[in-house]
Specification:
mainly alpha; MetI-like fold
Length: 305
């Protein structure tokens, strides 16, 4: 019986049993185990817990009676047990539902106008070459670091000059300018291949048609992310609505709830119930659009692109 001799290129090296069992094939892109990753995960978990504890304490305090909330008892439930009295007191006093509608109306309007203006401006800075483009974009970048509180007095006098105090437009218009969103959208538009636009321009599409039919559909993740960030900022804004609105029927939810609590003194359970009610819509928005937020941040220019 003849035996076949394997050439050096056909030889198969079989490792020992122990080493073969200990070595597992690594999937493409899989990173090796590193203790630093475990340490980083533990640190992030601790930070997440540190952020959640105050919110959970606010929720727990909102379900306490005023006596338990003011007693200083560190328990989560309280001696009297959970109750909805604080939430009922907040919802039964003042025009809470009207204030919630005002917040929703103004926040949605601010979001739509801000996203439209920011997207058009970012596309112009990304694709058009016009005189003063670099200087104007540098001014937008500089405006990002300007605190909004510095502009409060000039904006208020401007609203007075145009008779927009105690109006919806006086509440909306000063909040539609967002330099940071222009910067984020420009970074994303810079990453879109210009060959797509050139092909459309060859077919006869106008610049506006290219923006509407090509750029915007490709930018849905970042547009959704920007819209959510703008909506959250508009919903949480307290200082400007507090200054420009005196009519109780035009107040937003944060301002209106604060007037209710101020009128009845400091009641800790109601204060925490107010915070929970004001934050509840934002939590729902985040849970519904969580994937869009993460994907938008990852492709916004801050995620490595």
């Amino acid at each position: 019986m003849s035996t076949a001799t394997l050439s050096p290129t056909e030889a198969v090296v079989v490792p020992s049993g122990r080493s073969a069992r200990s070595r597992r094939p690594r999937l493409p892109g899989q990173k090796p185990f590193a203790p630093l990753r475990v340490v980083a995960f533990v640190i992030l978990a601790l930070l997440a817990i540190g952020w959640l504890l105050p919110f959970l304490w606010a929720v727990a305090t909102g379900f306490k009676t005023e006596t338990d909330a003011a007693s200083g008892d560190p328990s989560w439930i309280g001696a009297s047990g959970p109750t909805l009295d604080a939430f009922g007191a907040i919802l039964s006093q003042g025009n809470v539902y009207l204030w919630a509608w005002n917040s929703l109306l103004t926040s949605v309007t601010i979001t739509v106008i801000t996203v439209a203006i920011s997207a058009l401006a970012a596309y112009a800075f990304s694709r058009l070459d016009f005189r003063g483009r670099k200087w104007l974009f540098a001014a937008i970048i500089a405006a990002i670091v300007v605190p909004p509180q510095v502009l409060i007095i000039p904006l208020f006098y401007e609203m007075l000059a145009f008779n927009l105090v105690d109006t919806y437009w006086g509440l909306i218009l000063p909040q539609v300018v967002a330099p940071a969103m222009v910067f984020i959208l420009k970074k994303f538009f810079d990453a879109v291949p210009i060959e797509l636009e050139d092909a459309a321009r060859v077919d006869g599409a106008s610049r506006l048609r290219v923006f509407w039919s090509i750029i915007l559909p490709l930018s849905r993740p970042i547009l959704a992310s920007v819209a959510i960030f703008v909506f959250i900022g508009a919903w949480n804004n307290f200082l400007w609505p507090f200054l420009v609105i005196n009519d109780t029927t035009l107040m937003t939810l944060p301002v209106g709830l604060q007037t209710v609590i101020s009128a009845y003194g400091v009641q800790y359970a109601q204060v925490m119930a107010q915070a929970v009610l004001a934050a509840l819509p934002l939590i729902v928005v985040f849970l519904v659009f969580q994937k869009q937020i993460v994907k938008g941040v990852a492709t916004s220019g801050f995620g490595g692109q």
